[in-house]
Amino acid sequence: MDLPMRYTFFFLLFSTAFTSCRLDSPNTASNTTPVPQPTAKVASSQSPTPDATPEETAGKSATLLCQTVKTGDNVVYKKQTFAIDFEPFKSSCFVTTHNPEYDDPPMESEFAIYKNGKKVFQFPAQFNGVTFGCWVDAVAFQDLNEDKLSDVIVVGKCSGKSDTYNENMVYVNTGKAFTTREDANYQLNEKKTLKEIADFVKENRTMFFD
Q1: Bridge partners, residue 119, by sequence
Q2: Of 15, 131, 149, 186, which one's alpha carbon is 20 to 30 angstroms from that of 157?
Q3: Distance (Å, rounded) from C-alpha 164 to C-alpha 96?
Q4: Alpha-carbon distance 101 to 107, whole Å?
Q5: Is the distance from CB of 139 to CB of 155 less than 8 angstroms?
Q6: pLDDT at 52
Q7: What is the pTM of this model?
Q8: Cis omega (within 30 of 0) on the bond before 88?
């Protein structure tokens, strides 16, 4: 083999080997961006979230049971039905019901406490005596006078001739039952939220508590 042909042969052999090394090298960057594969997510309304505490999980399960309480002709308004666990009604349910003829809004609402599937307490003076066209918009359980007993705040809505209006209520926990003062509740009707009501009650305790 003459000299020019020999150089040509070695040049082609070296180029092939160098190209092969670059293609087979695991550290070589690719110009094609890899497409990430989607991660499967399984959602279930019955399964607790990974971050839920045992107490939160138990509370959600208890509330689901409360929402299955049999209440006669009325139907349970699940959005405002909760498991409660404080005196004097431990391991019980705060159950809101409404006339099934009215779904949106759920008018002719009533609320009571059930235990073991039976009504054990009916809240007095609901919607401050208004008997038609009202529903429960929000509920909170909070110690409003620092006596270590959970009181109940109910934001009530009623349908008027031209617009809806509020009939809010505060129920004081006496340790044996819940009482309310309609004259004090009338001072709450301009309040729109649970926080506004709670703040007002705390600033005017003598109006609501003995």
Answers
A1: 114
A2: 149
A3: 19
A4: 8
A5: yes
A6: 62
A7: 0.73
A8: yes
**Backbone region of residue 108 per phi and psi (left: phi > 0; alpha: psi in -120 to 50; beta: other values):** left
Radius of gyration of the chain (CA): 34
Summarize pLDDT for 102-149 with one digit per residue, the tens. 999 999 999 999 999 999 999 999 999 999 999 999 999 999 999 999
DSSP symbol at 189: T
**Cα–Cα dist 149/80, whole Å:** 21
Tokens of 70: 């049999």
pLDDT at 11: 44
What pLDDT sits at residue 55? 64
Regions of the chain short of the pLDDT cut 70: 1-58
**Nearest of 143, 144, 165, 169 to residue 155 by alpha carbon:** 169
**Which of helix, strand or coil describes residue 58?**
helix
Extract the tokens encoding 195.
């926080």
Tally of residues, the chain: 210
Residue type, 189: N
The H or E element that residue 21 is part of is helix 3-24
